[in-house]
Design a protein that fits this description.
about 400 residues, alpha+beta, Butyryl-Coa Dehydrogenase, subunit A, domain 1, Butyryl-CoA Dehydrogenase, subunit A, domain 2, Butyryl-CoA Dehydrogenase, subunit A, domain 3, 3 domains, 7-stranded mixed sheet, two-stranded antiparallel ribbon, 11 helices, globular, oxidoreductase, Glutaryl-CoA dehydrogenase, AcylCoA_DH/ox_N_sf, AcylCoA_DH/ox_N, FAD
Length: about 400
């Protein structure tokens, strides 16, 4: 694509931005995005493969990450104005384009943990925790999924909270918790089982090293390997009432957070597609077979154009998602459709990119296989394809089809 852009573009467009969506950002936003791009390319990219292979997290990058001052850009602070959802979404794209694991780390911290406190916390709680989270002095995690509950966690939440005077006693377990091994603050969702209570889902801010709280790193994970997912257990873990999110009183409040982040997963998928497109295109131009670059062969061009088509249509959908979020008109159904379609497209794009690289596509040094595996995680978390399909299906037909039929008894 030509690099010629409109007069408002101060940041070099990416090869995969075929329709020039970058131009929707104003110059100041592009300058912020440029800092993120340089950080991702200069700091994250050189260590991404090694961290992925060894399942280690680059804690030494957190101070430089913090220096970007991009946590909580969507809210207003005393010393900083709020920025558009389109900018924060493009930041997710830039991080995912280099390493979906680091984009997920950032999304858990600022999208799930910080947003939970911002949307569901009291003013005192926001003042207590958010400034340090913005500076990344406190890192957050979000604990909703459980060993026995993924898609049905809203109705089947097993982690319990029982009030005992000025404290709450938590018991249960959580699974797949990103940042869970090292987070300073973990947002824990639990069902109120206090005598006389109504069984409502409540949110708590659990601080690191709370007695009765244990985080164990999950092993054997073959996607987003740099993300430190953990199994969490709570055995009579006591949390003060002051750490209960004061405006989280039902799963509807939990879903307010998820609606925002589900749209963010669509952007992660778009960013990953951008990454595999660039890798496949560059390889096809450099790799020669039968005396010519493989980019000169029709079947290779078909793969590249198909990847670009997936990327461009998904980016268009994602941009509209951000615009709807900016005007507070974004619905659960729109979030579900965006997450579903963009991650389906990513799966196919990553497979095609691996095919362009042939046997070299399975070598970690060529990076495509990392994206190929990471696509599987993006495809599954924040709502599976099947659940998101049913959310949209209910919206367009008015009929809920979530409840399955029990198997017939044998006679």
């Amino acid at each position: 694509m030509s690099s010629t852009t409109g007069p408002t573009t101060v940041l070099e467009p990416l090869p995969g931005d075929f329709y020039g969506y970058l131009e929707l950002l104003d110059p100041e936003e592009q300058e912020i995005l440029g800092r993120v791009r340089r950080f991702a390319e200069e700091k994250i990219a050189p260590v991404a493969d090694e961290n992925w292979a060894s399942t280690t997290f680059p804690h030494d990058l957190i101070p430089a990450f913090a220096d970007l001052d991009i946590v909580g850009l969507g809210r207003e602070w005393p010393d900083r104005r709020s920025y558009s959802k389109l900018l924060t979404s493009f930041i997710s794209l830039e991080l995912s384009r280099i390493d979906p694991s680091m984009a997920t780390f950032f999304g858990v911290h600022t999208g799930l943990a910080l947003s939970s406190i911002d949307l569901c916390g009291s003013e005192e709680q926001k003042e207590r925790w958010l400034p340090a989270m913005r500076r990344m002095e406190l890192i957050g995690a979000f604990a909703l999924s459980e060993p026995h509950g993924g898609s049905d966690v809203a109705g089947g939440l097993e982690t319990t909270a029982r009030r005992d005077g000025d404290t709450w006693v938590l018991n249960g377990a959580k699974r797949w918790i990103g940042n869970g091994t090292f987070a300073d603050l973990t947002i824990v969702w639990a069902r109120d089982v206090t005598d006389g209570g109504d069984g409502a889902v409540l949110g708590f801010v659990l601080e690191k090293d709370t007695p009765g709280f244990t985080a164990t790193k999950m092993e054997g994970k073959l996607a987003l390997r740099t993300v430190q997912n953990a199994d969490l257990t709570f055995v009579d873990a006591r949390v003060p009432e002051a750490n209960r999110l004061q405006n989280a009183n039902s799963f509807k409040d939990t879903n307010r957070v998820l609606r925002v982040t589900r749209g963010g997963v669509a952007w992660n998928a778009v960013g990953a597609m951008m990454g595999v497109y660039e890798l496949a295109r560059d390889y096809a131009l450099e790799r020669e077979q039968f005396g010519a670059p493989i980019a000169s062969y029709q079947l290779i061009q078909d793969h590249l154009v198909t990847i670009l088509g997936h990327l461009t249509s998904s980016l268009g959908m994602a941009v509209r998602v951000a615009q709807l979020q900016d005007t507070d008109r974004f619905t659960d159904e729109q979030a579900a459709l965006a997450k579903r379609e963009c991650t389906i497209a990513l799966r196919d794009a990553a497979a095609r990119a691996r095919e362009v690289l042939g046997g070299n596509g399975v070598l970690l040094e060529n990076k495509v296989t990392r994206f190929f595996n990471d696509a599987e995680a993006l495809y599954s978390y924040e709502g599976t394809k099947e659940i998101n399909t049913l959310v949209v299906g209910r919206a367009i037909t008015g009929i809920g089809a979530f409840v399955g039929r029990a198997p017939a008894k044998k006679r």
